Amino acid sequence: MRKFLNPKAFTLLEITIVTAILLVLLGTTISLIAPSNSKGRSRDARRMSDISNLDRALNEYKMDFGVYPGEENTLYTSNVVPSGSPSIYSPTSGWVPADLSDYFPKYPTDPVNDATYHYEYVHNSVSYEISARAEQLVQEPSNDGGNDPSSYELGNNLLLISP
């Protein structure tokens, strides 16, 4: 019987071990990079959902009371508590000083809610705009028809809040 052994060749065990080590390194690298992107996309999805809920609540408030909540031409931001409001989350007087408790249990706020990432709302007598800055999802804000390509904007006048 003849054996075909080449001392310069790799054994199946050596190839398997090297492949396993490379897969572990690849998995570690992906797990270190991908969570930041997926967390940003997740926060952006929540922002879009919150803004849609706030849009619905503002329209229902307008139908019920004939006006939009808050003072006209005043920019409200979710990271600032207006004077007289107990907290930014209070449904009776949150970051927009109006009682929206019939429309949601607490005011939506940005997942980060700092100077860069927060919700904004402004209205005049006939129109309004709500906006939220996106972290990862750049396609939606640039296609929403508003004047700020980095913010997701909803409302019936997307030019009220300047970028």
Automatic annotation (TrEMBL):
<feature type="domain" description="Type II secretion system protein GspG C-terminal">
    <location>
        <begin position="39"/>
        <end position="131"/>
    </location>
</feature>
<dbReference type="InterPro" id="IPR012902">
    <property type="entry name" value="N_methyl_site"/>
</dbReference>
<keyword id="KW-0812">Transmembrane</keyword>
<protein>
    <recommendedName>
        <fullName>Type II secretion system protein GspG C-terminal domain-containing protein</fullName>
    </recommendedName>
</protein>
<dbReference type="InterPro" id="IPR045584">
    <property type="entry name" value="Pilin-like"/>
</dbReference>
<keyword id="KW-0472">Membrane</keyword>
<dbReference type="InterPro" id="IPR013545">
    <property type="entry name" value="T2SS_protein-GspG_C"/>
</dbReference>
<keyword id="KW-1133">Transmembrane helix</keyword>
<dbReference type="Pfam" id="PF08334">
    <property type="entry name" value="T2SSG"/>
</dbReference>
<feature type="transmembrane region" description="Helical">
    <location>
        <begin position="12"/>
        <end position="34"/>
    </location>
</feature>
